[in-house]
Amino acid sequence: MVRAEIITIGDEILYGQILDTNTQWISQELDKLGIKTVRKSSVGDAREAIVGIFDETQGRADLVIITGGLGPTKDDLTKKILADYFGSELVLHPQALEDVTEFFKIRGRELTEINRSQAFLPANCTFIRNAQGTAPAMWFDEKGIIWISMPGVPFEMKAIMEKEILPKLAGHFNTPTIVHRVIKTVGIGESYLSVLIEDWENNLPEHIKLAYLPSLGLVKLRLTGFGNDEIQLKKDIAICETSLKKIAGEYIFGYENDELESVVGELLRNKNETISVAESCTGGFLGHKFTSIAGSSDYFVGGVLAYSNEIKCNLLGVESEILKNFGAVSEECIRQMADGVRKMTGSTYGLATSGIAGPGGGTEDKPVGTVWIALSGPNDTITQKLTLGGSRKHNIELSTIACLNLLRKKIQ
After folding, report:
1. Residue 183 vs residues 133, 201, 232, 262: alpha-carbon distances, Å
2. Are 318 and 312 contacting, i.e. CB atoms less than 8 angstroms apart?
3. How far apart are CA 39 and CA 64, in angstroms?
4. Which of 9, 155, 165, 233 is the most buried (most CB within 10 A)?
5. Using alpha carbons only, how large is the chain's radius of gyration in Å?
6. How many Cα atoms within 13 Å fall on the side-chain side of residue 313?
7. What CA–CA distances, in Å, run from 39 to 65, 121, 195, 208, 278?
8. Planar angle of CA 152, 156, 157, nearest 5 degrees
9. In this structure, are 144 and 212 located in the same domain?
10. Which residues pair with 141 in a beta bridge?
11. 3-class SS at 225?
């Protein structure tokens, strides 16, 4: 296994002034080559800190990729530090000078002395051309490690990686084949899922590893196979996946880049069925999830944002006595909301939400996070009580996920 470390340099990253998207993209591309990223680090524009990070990589990585700190200004230290670190010196590189001169010439701008300094590179590096900017990338083979330094501007870095670095790495390292399979689940927490599939996990082949990737309301399972034969790895992972479905199939809704709302939408489309929504506590978020999918007009009819009791009564037909006796956050109310929106729109199904999202409004009987959802269909109406208790944003999102999952299970 080839181990890689990615280092981003720049105070702006530590201050949160820019979002570091480089390391995520780089690690994904390395993974495709069978190179495992073992650590990501961010460091400011300080010589001691940068050298300290470099020292830490010794014995831990076979490949170090550095982004940032290659500009022409005084706070850009990477190039000089790399030269010193490897006992080299900065020298004028003819091709780099030609590139930076041409860069300014075609833009009708003067090449200043500070811009000319971009053509000075460590004498021991291999020059890597930057066709999108003025700062070349550098390749070092030092201390038993491959070191690569690139500009931090994302579009420049990606162009250099795709055209120059990735092909060069593929030729340099003899890497194993890595195959991933992402299986997405909903309706079960990470700890409960781990108990459910414990025996299956313990009996996975040695060359296939499992990772849990939980997010709000969902858990992704990533199977990763290591070997030399990609076709065989895919077959082995498929066998593991088949046995997993027998145990946890009811919770599996999709794979790879599938989203719950798109999966549910495709189920509706395939059965030529439609959906409408009546939302209170989710405030339109459920409808947004449906309509965020291109082509959702095939199955999404519309909805009512029934935040007030008057709208619940006047548009959805909720009985005033129901609200008086049980309140808006109740099984009795949510049932009539779901039935009402289905009848009003003529859709196959009606989904409804009513609850206390917070942070205020809770009572002893109905604390913050108490949510009722309902699904009305041609033959019956299903209700479900959720006890969440998180932040307002989380309560809205979790209620929406629960609604989509309720509909998914009903259709299936």
Report:
1. 40, 14, 19, 15
2. yes
3. 10
4. 9
5. 28
6. 11
7. 11, 27, 29, 21, 47
8. 55
9. no
10. 146
11. strand
- In the chain, the N- to C-terminal Cα span, in Å, equals 42
pLDDT at residue 175, as a whole number: 83
Which two tokens mark 316? 């959805």
Residue 5: left (phi > 0), alpha (psi -120 to 50), or beta?
beta
**Same-domain pairing of 308 and 206:** no
Given this model, what pLDDT does residue 101 score? 94
Residue 173 burial (C-beta neighbours within 10 Å; 0-12, 13-18, 19+): middle
Give per-residue pLDDT as tens, 38-74.
999 999 999 999 999 999 998 899 999 999 999 888 8
Mean pLDDT of 397-402: 98
pLDDT in tens, 269-279: 999 999 999 99
Q: Among the three residues 119, 151, 172, which one is the final residue of a domain in this structure?
A: 172
**Average pLDDT, whole number, for the chain?**
95
Model's pTM, two decimal places? 0.80
Instruction: Tell me the two tokens of residue 176.
Output: 């194993």
